[in-house]
Amino acid sequence: MKREALSRQALARHEAGHVVALAALGGLGGFSWRRHSRYELAHVAEPQVAVEAWDESAARDQMIARRAVVALAGGAAEGHAILSETGPTNDPAVIHAWTGSVDFELAHEWLTLQRYDGSQPAILADIVRLFGEVSAFLARPTQQYALAIVAGRMIALLDGADHAGQTELVLPAAPLIEGLVLDPAPQFVLRETIQAAGGRRMT
Amino acid sequence: MNRPRTHLIEIDADILPAGNGAAFDAIDAAAGALDRGDVLVIRTHPSDGTKGRAVRRASKVLRALRQHMVHNWSLPRSSRVELDAESRGVPVAPFRSRRFLLPHQDGGHCSFLTPSRLDCAGLSPEERVYSSTVYWRRPSHKMYQGFLVTEPGNTPGSTFYYNALAMLDDAFVHQQGRPPANIEELAGFALQNLRRSRELQSLHGSRYLTLGAFLGAREPAHHVSPSGPRAESEFWPAQYLSLPNLAALAEECPCGNCDGPGVRLVCHTCLETLGLSWPQVRARYEATIVAARHDLVIANNLTLFHAADSDELRTLVPMCIVTSEAAGHEYERWLARQWRNHTPIDETAVAA
Q1: Any CB–CB contact under 8 A between A54 and chain B?
Q2: Which residue among B88, B227, B244 sits closest to A109, beta carbon to beta carbon?
Q3: Any CB–CB contact under 8 A between A124 and chain B?
Q4: Where are the domains of chain A?
Q5: Which of B90, B113, B152, B165 is nearest to B297 (CA)?
Q6: Which of A125, B61, B229, B349 is the most exposed place for a label (fewest CB within 10 A)?
Q7: Low-confidence ranges of chain B (pLDDT < 50)
Q8: Residue B345 in 3-state DSSP?
Q9: How far away is chain A from the Cα of B213, in angstroms, using its nearest Cα?
Q10: Which pLDDT score, from 0 to 100, does residue B222 have?
Q11: Binary contact (B87, A109; C-beta < 8 A)
Q12: d(CA A177, CA A157)
């Protein structure tokens, strides 16, 4: 999710990151946009949590890693141009600046759910590593092309809403990426949070 | 009446159970205080600093307390002591080492204050379950929430308590312009607020009854909590999109001093429902407990909301008095008594 007051391009690039990550990981929900008085706000939804996924540790870990990656993907897409010049970052504060507080805390919260305790260093280490991995995935030419097309379609959609006097859109996100091919996504996994817990998981 | 009273009670666990004597007096005093809606810090003796023994002593005291309350204070016989696994630290927001947990009730998906059916016959016991999916952490109805402090953290945490019925009474006055005529009218207000929140559930998606929902907030944004529910935490993206006013409410608060999206929303909640800012609510209703290592803290989970300021290293063993079914004559009678013990309404004066 991104709140953006100045640049629709930045908003679209950020949300395109979520669209591409979700599409690559096999689950795309809706696209929502709302114009507020001082900014516009957009969000690409993930599919609902399947309750049965909570009942089995391995499936839960896989789902949590996937959710964290999707939350971080908007910042990875938006920060690509700068981060490709400066190199991968190990600084959670830099990642926080690119993702924004809502997406960063969403990723943080999913990782906290892994054990529901306060191992901040492990959570931040998983965030830094997963952000690096999703940044590398999105930096490949296939995904860069898709990001540009999806962002362009999104801008056209929002410009159209502006012209029609609309202040709110709720649409399926799938048409935004229709006809585009993506590389297979790598396997994103939890590592540091599980190690810090000594293999224990929330029961 | 606004602020719950707090007590430190010292009990020699080694001489429990006891039919009379010092241990009996201490258990009797603790039971009476809990029944009045007070907050207890129970310090068990002898204290040898061992966590395992502290857990065993505290659970022994709690079992004796429950039994005494069943025999002398109408606590339902279906109640039981429920111990949970020791926490492994406090989940804090990113870049923080402490967290302020906003007012809530433990197990709030199915543990919150409802009217007794003796006062409000229209209430169905099923209405005491707000949500039954993806809850933290057990399905039991927590009547008294408690915890044994096993590690206080770098700076000992504070737990704050608020009389839900005093707040509900004030919310009624603020919203209706007059005091409730009697317990039944206040109970009806609570039920109406619960039902409104349930009707809005498809919009706000909350799985816990919030302070704002309990106090009768109309604005759907007041029916959600941030993760935790921590003062300093953000809301989830879907909440921002489904609740158009949430972004503005989480950005700025009426008093201008609240630090964090979660507490800024609560500041608005308090203004809408009570006409007070969050700092004013704290000044008016809050009672504070600072517990030491191996203290057992316990209070009514239904007639009190509680909040907490905790270091990330603090650990606890949750110890509660719960029931599996919040229904039946004994439960309704006990609940009606809690309403009368904790509400500021003077029914004698009203009748006169």
Answers
A1: yes
A2: B227
A3: yes
A4: 2-196
A5: B152
A6: B349
A7: 349-352
A8: coil
A9: 24
A10: 98
A11: no
A12: 13
Q: Which amino acid is at A52?
A: E
**Residue B198: predicted pLDDT:** 97
**For position A203, what pLDDT does the model report?**
42
Report pLDDT digits (tens) over A28-72. Answer: 999 999 998 888 999 998 876 655 556 677 888 888 999 999 999
What's the confidence (pLDDT) of residue B201? 95
Strands lying side by side in the sheet with B295-300: B6-12, B39-45, B295-300, B141-151, B315-323, B80-83
A43 touches chain B (CB under 8 A): yes
Q: What is the pLDDT of residue B349?
A: 44
Are the beta carbons of A124 and B94 separated by less than 8 Å?
yes
Q: Please indicate whether, in this complex, the C-beta atoms of B240 and A41 are within 8 angstroms of each other.
A: yes
Q: Is A53 on the interface with B (CB under 8 A)?
A: no
- A63 lies within 8 A of chain B by CB: no
Mapping DSSP onto H, E and C, the string for chain A reads CEEECCCHHHHHHHHHHHHHHHHHHCCCCEEEEEECCCCEEEEECCCCCCHHHHHCHHHHHHHHHHHHHHHHHHHHHHCHHHHHHHCCCCCHHHHHHHHCHHHHHHHHHHHHHHHCCCCHHHHHHHHHHHHHHHHHHHHCHHHHHHHHHHHHHHHHHHHHHHHCCCCEEEEECHHHHCCCCCCCCCCCCCCHHHHHCCCCCCC
- Within-domain flag for B75: yes
The rounded Cα B102 to chain-centroid distance in angstroms is 11
CB–CB contact B241 A3 (8 Å): no
**ipTM, 2 dp:** 0.87
Distance of CA B190 to the CA centre of its chain: 15
Tokens encoding A37: 């008085």
Residue B1 domain flag: no
Whole-model pTM above 0.80? Answer: yes
Query: Cβ contact (<8 Å) for B91 and A116?
Result: yes
Instruction: Say how many domains are in chain B.
Output: 1
Q: Find, among A110, A129, A23, A154, the residue nearest to B237 by Cα.
A: A110
| Number of inter-chain CB pairs under 8 A, A vs B | 74
What single string gives the DSSP state of each residue in B162-201?
Answer: EEHHHHHHHHHHHHHSS--SSHHHHHHHHHHHHHHHHHTH
Nearest CA of chain B to the CA of A170: how many Å? 9
CB B297 within 8 A of CB B41: yes
Which residues form the domain of B211?
A: 6-351
Are B299 and B147 contacting, i.e. CB atoms less than 8 angstroms apart? no
Tell me: the pLDDT tens digits for A124-173? 999 999 999 999 999 999 999 999 999 999 999 999 999 999 999 999 99
Residues B236, A119: C-beta atoms closer than 8 Å: no
